[in-house]
């Protein structure tokens, strides 16, 4: 039997409330940007009642710090539409969620320099003009009287603003300060089809927001005279009803159109509308008052292109295929995704379209007057296309050094484009040839290429022919740094690294002021933002000035000084996969008194109970040299309780190149599980962890991994697992994500069968806890329900924790605290950590730990400890 020894300690330990309250020392500046004249650095930063827009005056001494650009009340009472947009964007903050400056293009240097903020359905404007007083600088330009404004955007010249009201697109002129009150300030309606059920105009559809990282549905032309907008028709997408079972109203529900894998997708088209705003009061009340006959609909795909035409059996009427049901008739259809939209510098529309299989992407140039398309370039992949935002278009007057063939006026223009054609995301210089009507690759990979990933273009110096960009390097795959390189075709030098300190750097570059804003952290340094002077001649950063809070004045550290000293940086180690094909990066969190060095091994303890903290899916890297990895309070808390916590980036994870990520192609839940098991076996062999006491937890794809690991791994690999909001069968997830990696259920039935957790339930070994929010509109509770049915049929035990009023990511503090409590107790009772320290300050109270061992008898004292533990668990 197990006997219990309670070890009381004065050492502080993290509580469930601490974990649920977020990451200490990670007060991140968001949306770092510069004003059009380059004189202000702006960013979102927390204040007492939510995030506000802060600024640094770059004409003043940088050491004077930051100030609030303007104060605004908390954003309360969000509409369901706005709540779901924020859910898609993973914006779980109060206060201001976004802001936008007018264009930085030098063509608009004589126009008003303005910034807008959406707040509670209203639009607030800040006028960057030193001649105005405070009350004139900040004003409400749209009060929401015609309906809540969704996703507002300024015209590049700063004179107009457009937004969506009730699924249709509107625009209005921004009156100048002091302009007569008779000026038209009521928005003009530009579209009408949003009034139809299942149709939106000017909004990104669910798939675009959730899976394509496209949150916009309309884009102003560079000269502010036109808007290209998306019309999304979701009537072919199955409806999915979600009941709010935790509400007092038994009829409370919401309905979403959800594109299940292999089913119908939204039909997205693009149109261009001339924005001619009236001088008289517009009529926005009736559909008939809006003339849409002049809208130009764009030609997006070639009906003869074999990759954009599919012969499929797509049942668009039902959300779930009935087993044994006869297949729907085969139909030849055009099926594509509108991935990115914008404008080229010559006034044509830029569109990126990809086929449904996501193996082909076309970069288009479309005439806004005729709608005719030209394919600038086409990318193809045997695995899949990873979408990105890395596209820079040069000014039309730009010419390459020593090259007069693309002088201004002949229709040519230059741009920088990112591609994974080498196996890693790299930069390439292109010229659009107006005669050939195609893009011509002039040079690349920029910076010499190599086994590294470029993640962003931060600035382009057209005078010096240099491009500033960020990414990782072959020697620092788990870090992010800023680099600079020449994009000239004759350039031979490789890239130069600008950020030197090891860790994670996210930079914003102001070439006019020669200033770089660097948001930096590492596993040893909490997040902070500093300004550097940029030496463009020697390509170096000098004279850093700290702008945001540092470790010494972080509010949470100041309130609880013990926080900082109890956040212990994990140990990083690189191991080999079981098949000896790749390196796997691991982060190891150690209990007090346990010492582990990858070279010398373990000292100070016998093998410990261990928990694998997993995500495991594409587009995520968890083992990174940044502060959130160190300040993962769940991992730190479990380590304090006597567990070794291990994170391992298996094949399929991000920032390692397409071959590493593509290893799971059409066979999810296989190689990922094998790599996690390789990490378990490695640390068992090293003597760090006890092979009989290993657990796992994860959320979303990590929840899928947890459930799959206890079902698909060799018996005894995991004693228990917690699966939060898990996908359990990929036929129940959405089209764009699932089909990118798995194909469709119709063309990959074996892959879908093998990748379903339910297939492997008969071989399940270990205890399983399932956690899910009942109003999760992303990974529906149906996934967990289907798994439960299979568990019951196989007579496999499980534990279930439900949150009736939570979506995919829990928001309420009490719910997050409860998750931590219940998960902690589950692991303690099943894995028996060697040492668990208690402290009087713990929110849990009572007994919180024990030392395991076998005895032949039970004394009265041990009975009392057992009783205390039972009452707690």
From TrEMBL:
Stretches assigned to the Peptidase S9 prolyl oligopeptidase catalytic domain: 632-831
Give every Dipeptidylpeptidase IV N-terminal domain span. 123-299, 329-526
Does the keyword field hold Glycoprotein? no
GO terms (BP aspect): proteolysis
**Which Pfam families does the entry mention?**
DPPIV_N, Peptidase_S9
One GO molecular function term of this record is:
dipeptidyl-peptidase activity
Q: Which InterPro entries match?
A: AB_hydrolase_fold, Pept_S9_AS, Peptidase_S9_cat, Peptidase_S9B_N, Serine_Prot_S9B/DPPIV
Coiled coil: which residue ranges? Answer: none
User: Which keywords does the record carry?
Assistant: Hydrolase, Protease
Name it: Uncharacterized protein
């Amino acid at each position: 039997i197990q006997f219990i020894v309670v070890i009381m300690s004065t050492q502080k330990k993290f509580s469930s409330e601490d974990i649920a309250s977020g990451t200490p020392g990670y007060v991140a500046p968001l949306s770092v940007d510069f004003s059009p004249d380059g004189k202000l650095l702006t960013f979102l930063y927390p204040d007492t009642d939510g995030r506000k827009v802060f600024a640094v005056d770059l004409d003043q001494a940088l050491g004077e710090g930051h100030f609030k650009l303007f104060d605004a009340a908390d954003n309360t009472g969000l509409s369901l539409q706005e709540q779901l947009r924020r859910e898609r964007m993973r914006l779980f903050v109060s206060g201001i969620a976004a802001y936008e400056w007018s264009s930085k293009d030098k063509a608009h240097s004589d126009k008003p320099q303005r910034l807008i903020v959406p707040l509670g359905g209203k639009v607030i404007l800040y006028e960057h003009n030193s001649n105005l007083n405070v009350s004139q600088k900040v004003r409400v330009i749209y009060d929401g009287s015609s309906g809540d404004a969704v996703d507002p955007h300024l015209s590049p010249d700063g004179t107009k603003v457009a937004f969506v009201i009730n699924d249709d697109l509107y625009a209005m002129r921004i009156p100048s300060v002091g302009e007569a009150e008779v000026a038209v300030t009521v928005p003009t309606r530009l579209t009408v089809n949003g009034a139809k059920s299942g149709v939106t105009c000017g909004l990104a559809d669910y798939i675009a927001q959730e899976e394509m990282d496209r949150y916009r549905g309309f884009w102003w032309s560079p000269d502010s005279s036109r808007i290209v907008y998306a019309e999304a028709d979701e009537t072919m997408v199955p409806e999915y009803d979600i009941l709010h079972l935790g509400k007092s109203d038994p009829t409370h529900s919401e309905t979403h159109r959800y594109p299940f894998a292999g089913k119908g997708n939204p039909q997205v088209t693009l149109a261009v509308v001339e924005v001619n705003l009236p001088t008289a009061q517009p009529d926005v009340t009736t559909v008939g008052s809006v003339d849409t006959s002049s809208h130009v609909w764009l030609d997006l795909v070639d009906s003869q292109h074999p990759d954009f035409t599919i012969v499929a059996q797509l049942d668009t009427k039902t959300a779930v295929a009935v087993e044994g049901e006869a297949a729907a008739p085969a139909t030849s259809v055009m099926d594509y995704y509108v991935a990115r939209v914008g404008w080229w510098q010559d006034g044509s529309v830029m569109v990126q379209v990809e086929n449904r299989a996501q193996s082909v992407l076309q970069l288009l140039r479309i005439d806004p007057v005729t709608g005719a398309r030209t394919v600038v370039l086409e990318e193809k992949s045997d695995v899949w296309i990873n979408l990105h935002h890395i596209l820079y278009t040069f000014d039309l007057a730009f010419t390459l050094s020593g090259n007069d063939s693309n002088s201004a006026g002949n229709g040519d223009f230059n741009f920088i484009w990112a591609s994974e054609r080498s196996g890693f995301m790299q930069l390439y210089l292109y010229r659009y040839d107006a005669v050939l009507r195609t893009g011509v690759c002039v040079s690349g990979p920029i910076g010499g290429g190599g086994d590294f990933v470029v993640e962003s273009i931060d600035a382009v110096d057209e005078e010096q022919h240099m491009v500033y960009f960020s990414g990782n390097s072959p020697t620092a795959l788990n870090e992010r740094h800023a680099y600079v390189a020449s994009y000239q075709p004759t350039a031979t030098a490789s890239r130069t690294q600008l950020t030197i300190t090891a860790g994670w750097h996210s930079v914003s570059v102001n070439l006019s002021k020669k200033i770089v804003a660097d948001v930096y952290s590492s596993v040893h340094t909490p997040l902070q933002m500093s300004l550097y002077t940029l030496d463009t001649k020697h390509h170096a950063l000098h004279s850093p000035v700290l702008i945001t809070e540092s470790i010494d004045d972080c509010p949470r550290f100041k309130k609880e000084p013990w926080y900082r000293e109890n956040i212990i940086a994990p140990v990083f180690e690189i191991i080999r996969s079981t098949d000896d094909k790749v390196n796997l990066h691991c982060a190891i969190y150690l209990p007090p008194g346990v010492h582990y060095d990858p070279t010398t091994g373990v000292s100070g303890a016998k093998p410990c109970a261990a928990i694998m903290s997993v995500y495991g899916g594409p587009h995520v890297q968890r083992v990174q040299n940044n502060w959130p990895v160190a300040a993962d309070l769940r991992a730190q808390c479990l380590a304090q309780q006597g567990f070794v916590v291990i994170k391992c980036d298996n094949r399929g994870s991000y920032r390692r190149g397409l071959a590493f990520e593509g290893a799971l192609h059409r066979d999810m839940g296989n190689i990922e599980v094998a790599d996690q098991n390789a990490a378990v076996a490695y640390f068992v062999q090293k003597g760090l962890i006890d092979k009989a006491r290993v657990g796992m937890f994860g959320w979303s794809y990590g929840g899928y991994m947890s459930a799959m690991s206890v079902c698909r791994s060799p018996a005894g690999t995991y004693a228990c697992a917690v699966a939060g909001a898990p996908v359990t069968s990929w036929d129940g997830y959405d089209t764009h994500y699932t089909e990118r990696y798995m194909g469709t259920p119709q063309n990959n039935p074996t892959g879908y069968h093998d990748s379903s957790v339910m297939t492997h339930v008969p071989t399940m070994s270990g205890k399983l806890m399932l956690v899910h929010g009942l109003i999760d509109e992303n990974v529906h509770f149906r996934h967990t329900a289907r798994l439960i049915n299979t568990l019951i049929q196989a007579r496999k035990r499980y534990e279930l924790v439900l949150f009736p009023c939570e979506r995919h990511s829990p928001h309420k503090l009490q719910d997050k605290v409860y998750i931590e409590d219940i998960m902690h107790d589950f692991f303690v009772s099943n894995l028996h950590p060697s040492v668990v320290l208690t402290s009087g300050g713990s929110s849990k109270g009572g007994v919180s730990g024990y030392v395991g061992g076998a005895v032949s008898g039970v004394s009265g004292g041990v009975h009392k400890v057992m009783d205390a533990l039972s009452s707690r668990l």
